[in-house]
Amino acid sequence: EVVVPVGLPDEGAFDWLDAFLAAHPKYNELSDRMVVDWAEKSGMRRQGGGTTNKASRDKPEFSFGLKEVDDFSIRRVLQAFAPLQSRHFVVMELKENLIKESRARSLSKFGDGFKKVAHVVVGEPSPAFKKKTQEQTLKAKQAASDVAFRAKKAEEKRKKMIEKKQKEAEKARKKAEKVKAKALKQAQEALKKKIEEKKKAAEKKEGDEEAKEEEKEEKKEEPEEDEEEEEEEE
Fold first, then answer.
1. Dihedral over alpha carbons 37, 42, 47, 53 (to 10 degrees)
2. Ramachandran angles phi, psi of 8, nearest 5°
3. Are 12 and 132 in contact (CB under 8 A)?
4. Contact (CB, 8 A) for 177 and 183
5. What is the DSSP string of 80-135?
């Protein structure tokens, strides 16, 4: 079976589609948002910058940076192969489904083996649908709030970790400075001691040399005294 929803923009057509797919899991959605969802689940990421239409469910901007995806080649391949598969499909194209000629052209791709059904989703929704939509809206808001809360907690944790690392780094820096200052002081004291030892050694050497000189002088003077004594005896 191939189902064609007929609805107005911003009037809950995609909400109806989500409810329909939840109630009929064997049906396969054919739409631009389905292609984007497939691409993102495959690991692709849409690129930022420029004017984007990422939030649109009918015509989301592809902008994955891959030519085969961004030029709608993937979508055309899916549209070409879908009618060859023995499956149930929902063709979700708001503008094309609203126009009779476009709708007929889209359905003509599916052969006689498919039952073709149009669902008009215009007008006042049922109380059950309203309730379901409100629950989904509240659930989405709660999920967004939870994400924001977790992000806030993660940011607080990240800041605490940064502060902790900064304190540890500051503590390590001060410790390194103390070790460096202590080593410098020890080196200065060792140098001072070495200089003093050299100075004392030099003074001692100088004193020894002076003593030797005095001893030499004394030895030179001793013979003269002996000669004077001999002269006196004569």
1. -10
2. -95, 155
3. no
4. no
5. HHGGGS-SEEEE--HHHHHSHHHHHHHHTTS-TTS-EEEEE--SPPPHHHHHHHHH
Can you give the residue ranges of every domain in the chain? 2-123, 125-192
Locate all alpha helices (DSSP H) within the chain, ordered by sequence. Answer: 13-23, 32-41, 67-70, 73-81, 94-98, 100-107, 127-233
d(CA 25, CA 20) in angstroms, rounded, equals 8
Cα–Cα distances in angstroms (integers) from residue 103 to residues 29, 63, 95, 97, in the given order: 16, 27, 9, 5
Q: Beta-carbon neighbour count of residue 97 at 10 Å?
A: 22
Structure tokens, 62: 């592809």
Q: Element (H or E) spanning 27, and its range?
A: strand 27-30
Tokens of 234: 């004569």
The one-letter code for the residue type at 30 is: L
Q: Which two tokens stand for residue 138?
A: 């509240």
Quote the percentage of the chain above a pLDDT of 90. Answer: 35
Q: CA Rg, the chain, in Å?
A: 49
The amino acid that residue 6 corresponds to is V
- pLDDT over 80 (residue 57): no
Q: To which residue do tokens 């020894």 refer?
A: 208
CATH code of 2-123, in short, is: 3.40.50
The arithmetic mean of pLDDT across residues 76-99, rounded, is: 89
Question: What is residue 224's predicted lDDT score, i.e. its pLDDT?
Answer: 55
